[in-house]
Amino acid sequence: MIRAYTFLMRPTVGQRVALAEMLRDHCSLYNGALQERRDAYRHASKTSVTYGQQSAQLKEIRAFDPERQGRWSFSSQQATLRRLDKAFAAFFRRVKSGDTPGYPRFRGVNWFDTVAFPKDGDGCGWDSTPHDPVTRVRFQGIGYVRVNQHRPVVGNVKTISVKREGKHWYVVLTAEQAQPEPLPTTGSVVGIDLGIVNFLADSDGAFVPGPRLGRKAAAKLEAAQQALAQFPRVRRDKRTGNHRRAVERVADLHRRVRRQRLDHAHKTALDLVREHDFIAHEDLKIRNMVKAPGPKPDAETPGGFMPNGASAKAGLNRSVNDAGWGVFLTILHAKAESAGREVIAVDPRNTSRTCPECGHVAKENRPTQEKFHCVSCGHTAHADTVGALNVLRAGLVRCEAQPA
User: Fold this and answer.
1) Residues 115 and 196 in one domain
2) Residue 194 class from Cβ within 10 Å (0-12 exposed, 13-18 middle, 19+ buried)?
3) pTM for the whole thing?
4) For residue 199, which of 13, 176, 210, 302 is within the disulfide window of CB 3.0 to 4.6 Å?
5) Same domain, yes or no: 277 and 361
6) Which residues have a Cβ under 8 Å from the Cβ of 343 and sit 6 or more positions away?
7) How far apart are CA 234 and CA 236, in angstroms?
8) Strands 380-382 and 207-209
9) Does 182 fall in a domain?
10) For 126-181, how does the pLDDT look when each residue is reduced to its tens digit (9 = 90+)?
């Protein structure tokens, strides 16, 4: 089993400068490799450049520019080139499937915030001595950087990454560890229905209120973004201290909301995993749910368009993204795997329109967002609870149908 750990680093002033230079040079390598691929495809009879060809050029690049590219780990530079190769592979895969993805783009210095080291001991080293109160991580070209290790790392460290978030620096470890002991069985099963007003409703009739963290921070974020917009667009080397602090203020607000959302998702998922042996949830296609509606041309007015509800859909999309369903489901599956629990995703179609008493399916069964009233048998309940109950039943049926 592979588990990730994220720790805050506490670099010195000189190490901060060196870390920023490492990101800048890896960003330059990424953009240079992207430009080579673009040029080869456009001007060399649509020739494709592979990762292997670009990786073979690294030795010459390091010898040509020893002050910038030559001082960093060879393996980390290979990881940067592999990152570009994965971007192109994802692009062509989506094109083949009929989507319209964006072509891989050049990265600005502020948008390239991660450098990966594929192996512990190759250009990096995790130093966590049991009797030493200070934990350090070593990077080639930078040295030993102090780390705020707030919990022990279990297992063998496999990969190490450096990540910048605003003015903070983090080290991300992946460790291979044995399968932990499963939690004691409880004999309980549950189905959950995700929403916005109620973040979660379960089949037992309980509700978890929606935190709406983005909406609560919207006023502060709007003020910070307006303050940032007052600064003119100038080159990076000509920006003032006030401009830098305005950028950091916006980044800090976004980071705070993201961490609060993660904290809420972790706590909610942990409660479910501790209390239930089997959890069923809707197999939501969140990316499709937040798509903007297409334009509606007006047949009577050439060049005109009819209202398509884009404004209302934009508000709904913001609420869906603010809820963080995708993050929560990812965390739920990870915690269930560690605890020995079973989690199953089921088809969400008609789960909130099907009567749990008589099985009648109709749109009229749900007259409002919260109320469920079966037009066939008269059963009344909360619509989210009905949806969670139908999700649980579908999950149990699917679990029994799966081959042993």
Assistant:
1) no
2) buried
3) 0.85
4) 210
5) yes
6) 278, 279, 280, 281, 332, 333, 336
7) 6
8) unpaired
9) no
10) 987 665 678 999 999 999 999 999 888 988 999 999 999 888 999 999 999 888 88
Long-range CB contact pairs, 177-183, < 8 A, 24+: 177/1, 177/2, 177/3, 178/1, 179/1, 180/1, 180/338, 180/339, 181/340, 182/339, 182/340, 182/341, 183/273, 183/274, 183/339, 183/340, 183/341
**pLDDT value at residue 237:** 64
The region, left, alpha or beta by phi > 0 then psi within -120 to 50, assigned to residue 224 is: alpha
Is residue 37 over pLDDT 80? yes
| Structural domain containing residue 74 | 2-176
Ramachandran region of residue 24, left (φ > 0), alpha (ψ -120 to 50) or beta? alpha
Look at the block and give the residue holding tokens 């369903």: 325
Q: Quick one: tokens of 205?
A: 């009739």
d(CA 261, CA 368): 28
- One domain for residues 76 and 156: yes
For residue 79, give the nearest of 48, 103, 112 by alpha carbon: 112
pLDDT in tens, 229-287: 888 776 666 778 888 889 889 989 999 999 999 999 999 999 999 999 999 999 988 88
List, in order, residues 6 or more apart from 266 with CB less than 8 Å away.
Answer: 331
- CB under 8 Å to 385, separation ≥6 — which residues? 193, 201, 202, 203, 205, 372
Q: How far apart are CA 401 and CA 404, in angstroms?
A: 9
| Identity of residue 218 | A
Is 151 within the bounds of a domain? yes
Indicate the pLDDT class of residue 403, thresholds 50, 70 and 90.
low
350: left (phi over 0), alpha (psi -120 to 50) or beta: left
